[in-house]
Amino acid sequence: MGEGIGARVLRKEDQRFITGKGRYTDDISERDMTHGVFVRSPHAHARIRSIDASEAKNVPGFVGIVTGQDLIDGAIGNIICGWMIYSKDGSAMKAAPWKVMDPEIVRHVGQPVAFVVAETRAAAVDAAEAVTVDYEELPALTNFHHALDPGAVEVHPEAPGNLICDWQLGDEAATDDAFAKAAHVVELDLEQNRLVPNAIEPRAAIASYNVAEEHYTLNTTSQNPHVARLCLSAFYNVAPEHKLRVIAPDVGGGFGSKIYIYPEEITCLFAARVLERPVKWVADRSESFLTDAHGRDHKTKAKLALDADLKFTGLKVETIANIGAYMSLFSSATPTYLYATLLSGQYTTPNIYCNVKLVYSHTTPVDAYRGAGRPEATFVVERIVEAAARKLGVDPIELRRKNFIREFPYQTPVLMAYDPTDFDALVEKGLAHADHAGFPARRAEAERRGKLRGMGFSCYIEACGLAPSKAVGQLGGGVGQWESAEVRVNPVGTIEILTGSHSHGQGHETTFAQVVADRLGVPVGNVAIVHGDTDKIQFGMGSYGSRSGPVGMGAIARALDKVEAKAKVIAGHLMEADPSDIVIENGELKVAGTDRKLGWHEMTLAAYTAHNLPDGIEPGLTEKAFYDPANFTFPAGCFVCEVEIDPDTGITRVVRFVAVDDFGVIVNPNVVEGQVHGGLAQGIGQALYEGAYYDDAGQLLTGSYMDYCLPRADDLPSFSLDHVETPNPNNPLGVKGCGEAGAIGAPAAVINAVTDALRTEAMTMPATPEKVWRAVQAMRAPIAAE
Amino acid sequence: MSEVKLTVNGRAVTRDVEDRTLLVTLLREHLGLTGTHVGCDTSQCGACTVHIDGHAVKSCTVLAAQVDGSEVVTIEGLADGASLHPMQEAFRTHHGLQCGFCTPGMIMMGIDIVQRHSSLDEETIRKELEGNICRCTGYHNIVKAIKAAADDMAVGTPSMAAE
Ligand code: FES
Ligand code: FES
């Protein structure tokens, strides 16, 4: 194995991070750089009467101010939603314009109103505070549960009654029929709490403009710098694509929130041109809470139909999804195509129907956050299956086993075609690691100590590796979902991989190099991964949706195919053998069955000296590939969570968490396990700790780490992981992607465990001590009354 | 303005700073030591943790003027030339970092934790990490790394002595 696929190679990128030599956006300084601070709306809904910057101009160090009107006068375009969806009546979604800085009206607390630039950050803060904005406050709609109420305050006139889209998927008549004939029906009301992604590095941007060349450079915290450049040029009209370089240097986590191009980055570029000086903007955490796209936020009614043999016959799901004040880039796709298409779960349910109503509210825009639609779907499926088992008095694992899909490929009633996975094997391992058999004894022991124990399961399947571009286009997506890679082999045999994927913690500099090492036998140390710079890499769709493995590495594998083919032609020529007889092993090219061989570096040097190449072969050795996957990939797993609740305090502790996943081929187990750990922490965070709340006036009550509970080390257990490996048949490397699984599967497992302990289905996320304590009181009340 | 004199990573420095300048701003912007990060504005995340006179302190919570005369060590000052501090080494060996943004603070805090405890179990490490937030790793490998470094440091290494 060496350093190839499957090896636990230590990360190459770590050296700079552990010595303080990482280079994040805020670590960069430009000559003559200025600092910008946004003036933001304190109101959820208000008309802007006037903006008075006269005081600000007197603040020492003031350089300039940009207002929304300046952007409009500068022909800066509106922010787009990149995925068109249609209501069930055939009408297009009603997306209202999102102006970069609306000069007339604000629709959520934190919406930018003006951008003040000064010599230092402190001066910019002072000057921004000196800007007086006169607002006329308007009534706000901040609780989306009431967005569709008759007479509700309207967020945008373009979307009457706040309804953006009344979307559906599946066969409603057939599903209703299944319910009519069902032996059992189980219903469940569910909520997906609103989350704030919280990458620990806040968003930041440094824009500069070269007047002589009319050229822009943007250093920014992006998960997909090429997509940023495309949007900034094609839609926001900031600069033509060939005159704009976007660099995403080291980026401190993303989780979806750094996919989007927000008003701030656009405004920085505009300001850099107008002021003819570099402008840096770095969000403070309060701004991150107010402006990074939030995640989840659904309200759902679900029901499951079962026949007398306890086979699932129908699933009907009705969801209201909060989109916030504006439609962010993937906001239309996340609660629709990335959600309803996974409602089949691991089961053979033949009839599924889902209706989603997307609504506006006077809150921060909501978009894809780690898992994006799939955690929501998994929560619906795995909660209702567990609830059904309890209601019908069957073992929750047995009920799942009765309904597992076992024949592949499997076409679900909701668009997806699953590749092979062994759900039974996942469950078996999950139960073994969780010591399922020993649970009753542990529960009894806990009860003797006055504690409540519960065990919950979550058998998730998700779709990642977005995805065949054709399918994405047919479903309304505005971009292709391929990935690009270039393999540059240098004369001395070292290799640079230029990839369109972007690492913001995923370890690509190591894992991508392992793919090369595996194929060519060159040491990982001789392979450099170049990413995150539109000047260096031709194009890329970036990293989100666990696509770097299946799609990004897929592109590298395809480019390596071409490199390998040419290398064999050259080596064959040099060794007077047929290229088809050449094998590449341990950094050497050998003629099979003979002792003739050539070092990798000898071949590469020959490619570049070009003194002795076969006729028709170009000098050099560099190849590109654009890889468009044939299908989504379908990671799946079985999670088992055991909790212990202190009935006196309502505090829930996760005492054991087992995650068994099938990610297909694993390139670097360290990195994959790390991804699972982080995902689980976010999933457990959603289930027990995290939740964004607005008051009726639209103020974010959870706007800092003092009141939004991001899990700390002592809120979490150590995790117990294992895997099953079913190589993905469609992927060049057999990989499936692993970045979101933890966040997708964990919430249902935790809440199933909590509700098991509390013997009630009525528990919303986050299951805070207060909610749990109240549930304990409710559980005990009838006992006390007896 | 105040004149601040202090030792940073063994080097004597003097700077005139605005009174409101935070230590983290002095380090990052005046001294170019960008390894110390800022992740929040409420002193919760710990990304800015440095050592002041041998103790872990959140440098976003201290004014530069307050540390006049102190000895400050940042993440950049830990390694002894090419040889890493055992805590740095342990973070790498145990994959205790992903995006790396919380990492400098975690490492500085980890050293402080080890220094204050003669023996360390998982529960203690987790409790002690209360003030350091990581969004990437789920803490699993951070806890492992600190435990491993504690064992290494107990053996006593030159880089510890140098600190
Ligand atoms: S930046 Fe100092 S604690 Fe967050
Ligand atoms: S490694 Fe990213 S925040 Fe800790």
Spell out the key features of this protein:
heterodimer, A: 786 residues, alpha+beta, Aldehyde Oxidoreductase, domain 4, 3 domains, five-stranded mixed β-sheet, 19 helices, globular, B: 163 residues, Ubiquitin-like (UB roll), 2 domains, 6 helices, disordered C terminus, binds FE2/S2 (inorganic) cluster
What can you tell me about this protein's structure?
The complex is a heterodimer of chains A (786) and B (163). With 786 residues, chain A is α+β, with helices and mostly antiparallel strands. Chain A has three domains: 212 residues, Aldehyde oxidase/xanthine dehydrogenase, a/b hammerhead (Aldehyde Oxidoreductase, domain 3); 324 residues, Aldehyde Oxidoreductase, domain 4 (2-Layer Sandwich); 146 residues, Aldehyde oxidase/xanthine dehydrogenase, molybdopterin binding domain (Aldehyde Oxidoreductase, domain 4), CATH 3.30.365. Helices cover 29% and strands 23% of the residues of chain A. Chain A has 19 helices and 28 strands. Chain A has a seven-stranded mixed beta sheet, with helices on both faces. A five-stranded mixed beta sheet of chain A has the order 7-15-14-13-8. A four-stranded mixed beta sheet of chain A has the order 18-26-27-28, with helices on both faces. In chain A, a hairpin with a 4-residue loop joins strand 26 and strand 27. The model of chain A has no long low-confidence stretch (mean pLDDT 96). Chain B has 163 residues and is of the alpha+beta class. Chain B folds into two domains: 74 residues, Ubiquitin-like (UB roll) (Roll), CATH 3.10.20; 69 residues, [2Fe-2S]-binding domain (DNA polymerase, domain 1). Chain B has six helices and five strands; from the N terminus they run ββαβββααααα. Chain B has a five-stranded mixed beta sheet, with helices on both faces. In chain B, helix 2 packs antiparallel against helix 5 and helix 3 crosses helix 5. Chain B is globular and about 45 Å long. Chain B starts with a strand and ends with a helix. The C terminus of chain B is likely disordered. Classes of the chains: A alpha+beta (786), B alpha+beta (163). At the A-B interface, helix 1 and helix 17 of A face helix 2, helix 3, helix 4 and helix 5 of B.
